[in-house]
């Protein structure tokens, strides 16, 4: 395994779900040598993932409980990471939620919940990371988790799609804003990834009578993926490692889909 990220200090939000994308990236980037601040609203999850990574890869880790919608907590997260590791090199704004609702059933309440966590959380994460990276004066990498839903919108998840288009829009604006500081801001957009989020959606479909059997929704969502299967968090590590490393120094404001070919534009 390459040690292209050796000694790079990385924050990953939403990394406390053991089967989730954030945790998958935490393991994968640690395997490539990065020190990881494992951050999530789920305290127990952050401690488990951080402890496991330290044991397996011998890198430095820190577990931080944070709600990405809370500015003060996000500032504290950056501060604690810098005091533990010395500086912040890479920020991955990954925390997110999804909800199913037909277009006419979307409510203001669920709109605000999704927009707050997925979009405003990314906004605060970009801002707080950029402030720290500008103060350090050595550039940096900001990676925001978008989705295929940031390029195509689906009627059963319109508010989720809006929140992910917002992530892509914020990333482009931030890329232009911080280019002079050599801070690259890019998005990566998964397609169908088997995580707790997808399992929850699968259960929601059964409980609403939209599907009959557990696993059916994930199967239906995966039908027709050109590369022939849904993905796992480990499928996303290579793209994240590329965006976190100097290999992507001449790339900013991009939204790379890692979706098995689901969306081709
Ligand atoms: N699973 C997929 O198919 C898929 C596809 C495209 C994009 N994504 C995106 O990838 C990201 C991770 O999704 P996942 O599938 O790993 O989901 P997940 O539910 O497994 O993990 C999400 C994590 O975010 C955390 N979180 C939720 N609200 C938070 C908050 N306010 N503050 C801090 N942490 C919070 C949760 O505790 C959880 O650990 C999300 O942004 C999601 O929209 C997922």
TrEMBL record:
Enzyme Commission (EC) number: 1.1.1.47
Keyword Transferase: no
Record keywords: Oxidoreductase
GO molecular function list: glucose 1-dehydrogenase [NAD(P)+] activity
Pfam family, one: adh_short_C2
Broad class of enzyme this protein falls into: oxidoreductase
Family: Belongs to the short-chain dehydrogenases/reductases (SDR) family.
Name of the protein: Glucose 1-dehydrogenase
Organism the protein comes from: Mesorhizobium shangrilense
Source species taxonomy: Bacteria, Pseudomonadati, Pseudomonadota, Alphaproteobacteria, Hyphomicrobiales
């Amino acid at each position: 395994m390459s040690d292209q990220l050796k000694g790079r200090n990385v924050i990953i939000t939403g990394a406390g779900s053991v089967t989730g994308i954030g945790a998958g990236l935490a393991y994968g980037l640690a395997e490539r040598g990065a020190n990881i601040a494992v951050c999530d609203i789920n305290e127990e999850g952050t401690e488990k993932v951080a402890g496991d990574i330290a044991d397996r890869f011998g890198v430095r880790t820190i577990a931080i409980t944070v709600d990405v919608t809370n500015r003060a907590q996000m500032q504290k997260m950056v501060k604690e990471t810098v005091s533990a590791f010395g500086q912040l090199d890479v920020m991955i704004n990954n925390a997110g939620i999804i909800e199913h609702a037909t277009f006419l059933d979307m409510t203001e309440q669920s709109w605000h919940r999704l927009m707050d966590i997925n979009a405003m959380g990314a906004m605060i994460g970009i801002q707080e990371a950029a402030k720290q990276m500008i103060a350090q004066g050595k550039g940096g990498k900001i990676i925001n988790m978008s989705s295929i839903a940031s390029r195509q919108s689906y009627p059963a998840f319109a508010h989720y799609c809006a929140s992910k288009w917002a992530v892509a829009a914020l990333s482009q604006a931030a890329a232009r804003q911080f280019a002079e500081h050599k801070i690259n801001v890019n998005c990566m957009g998964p397609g169908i990834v088997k995580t707790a989020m997808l399992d929850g959606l699968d259960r929601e479909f059964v409980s609403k009578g939209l599907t009959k059997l557990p696993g059916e929704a994930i199967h239906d969502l995966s039908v027709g993926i050109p590369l022939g299967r849904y993905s796992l968090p480990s499928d996303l590590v290579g793209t994240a490692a590329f965006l976190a490393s100097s290999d992507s120094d001449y790339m900013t404001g991009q939204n790379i889909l890692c979706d098995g070919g689901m969306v081709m534009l």
